[in-house]
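Could you join me in thinking about how sequence relates to backbone shape in a protein? Would you write everything just below, so we can both look at the same thing?
***
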Amino acid sequence: MDAEILFLLGVYLAPLGFVSLIGAWAHNRRPVLAGVLLLGSAALIAYVALTRDAGPFGLNDIPDLTIALIARLIANL
């Protein structure tokens, strides 16, 4: 997979993990799914940051990468 896709996957999984964490806390449950999502998100972002030759992506790159990914998905239909 491309580094852009992995980075975006990590970025978009992080809020889902946070929401899952809040939901588990509100219902007095163990946040197992939240931990998996947050750990996976952090691992994806760290992997891209460590293996990408041009350096890590920044927060300002997220909108451009998202638009480029959507355009690439539409072009491949």
